Amino acid sequence: MTDIDAVRPLPATARGRRSRQALLDAAKTVFARDGFADARITDIADTAGAAHGSFYTYFDSKEEIFVALLRELEEELWHPAERSSDEPSAADPYGQILRANRAYLKAYRQDRAIMIVWEQVATLNPEVERLRRDAADRFAHRIAVAIEHWQQKGIADPALDPEYAAVALTGMVSNFVYRWSARDADYDLDTAAEQLSVLWANALGVRRPSANP
């Protein structure tokens, strides 16, 4: 597997960036359809409508484009777009929890086939596992900072260790959506986000709006 710490600079021209992105989009389709082991560079190039040799202008190997794709997915998964006007307000802690959980579930479900491939490859390849773990750790750290802030404001249970709680709660959500996707369970996204957020709120001692006296 390629060195996941080596990040090749983006092409200098707009045309080059479009060509590279077309290959990444094609790779997502091919890896999701065929899995990592059976995916072929020729299939990725064909799906992108590119000459087979042009693949190597942007990537050295199947492994390199897979890691580049994972980095792109990581950005979508852990840094979702700003909420739309019909999503819950982030003015209160429960609203922040619900918004974050819903965005994560939505992003994961949109790319669930390739996310399952990522999980499978991570069990076999330590470098891909490290990429997944590091991304999850950064996300958990941001949650830990929020928990500590809520504790300082008297909103969350002061007995909790923010880092432990964040790892446990984010792990619960990621494991839930993986099992949901791998089993193709008939769950509703909004209901899942709400139920997971209720569990978060109860675990943290954060009051939900409906639970206000």
TrEMBL record:
Q: Which residues bind DNA?
A: 40-59
Q: Which GO terms describe its molecular function?
A: DNA-binding transcription factor activity; transcription cis-regulatory region binding
| A Pfam family annotated for this UniProt entry | TetR_N
Specify the domain of life of the species encoding this protein.
Bacteria
Residues in domain HTH tetR-type?
A: 17-77
What parts of the sequence cross the membrane? none
Question: Which positions are tagged coiled coil?
Answer: none
| InterPro entries attached to this UniProt entry | Homeodomain-like_sf, HTH-type_TetR-like_transc_reg, HTH_TetR, KstR2_TetR_C, Tet_transcr_reg_TetR-rel_C_sf
Q: What is the protein name stated in its UniProt record?
A: HTH tetR-type domain-containing protein
- Native organism: Prauserella flavalba
